[in-house]
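Q: What structure does this chain adopt?
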Amino acid sequence: MDLLLNLHALPATAAYAVFMLAGGASAALACALLAPIVRAPQTKEMLDVAMRTTGAVTAALTLTLAFCAVQARSHKTDADRAVRTETAAIAGFARLAARAGPAGEALQPAIRDYVRSIAADEFQSMTASGRSPATQRLADALEEAAYAAAAGLGQSLADDMLQEMDTVEAAREARLHAAAIHLPQEFWLLILLLFSLVVATGPLYPARAHVVAMLGIQAAGLSALIAFLFLIERPFHGVMALSPEPYHVLDHALGLRADPLRHVRTLRH
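A:
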């Protein structure tokens, strides 16, 4: 698992190179080393059957990769929606806290600390380790502060504050759930089996230099598609991961909102 996550963290060009070299080399070696052992008859009929078989398996693998890419793209869209839903929920909670007077204003530092912890800590590590203990502590502290603030408010405003707090918690759980989503293992097993079948057709061809080179190029091309899928399958990890920028923008907005509030309190005094 750690090896796969480290491979996700490689630059895109390095990940493509690893997959393409491994795939191309396996197909080329299968033909060069096993063709003399298999000794398939080099007739026109045999070569036609071999090409048809390779083409059919290649087509099946390509369709599978296309389907999986659509699934991965859908997961990324859902994850992006979860991020934006969470930032909107936190912003709504902060606006409500600002309306709640001194009790709500006391929540603003806790809200900003929570947002900063998501962006700096949990967002980077949640794919591998789930929820961050530090961010969880800040979330618990924010919830306790919200209940304490609600105790000193009117019934309607208190109910609204607790409802907004519940929305923030639900949005966080949705983001954490989205971070754990990736392609099922069965899809990767199917891809591996189909690619193995492509490699297995190599010994049916004559082990000539140009044939070995063409089989290697074909396998390298398929491996590039597999690498692309590998890079996009986890929404919050790797070079194509979602950015924590919405949380930075929210933190900046909360800071701008806090300054006018502080200015208003100064004028009142």
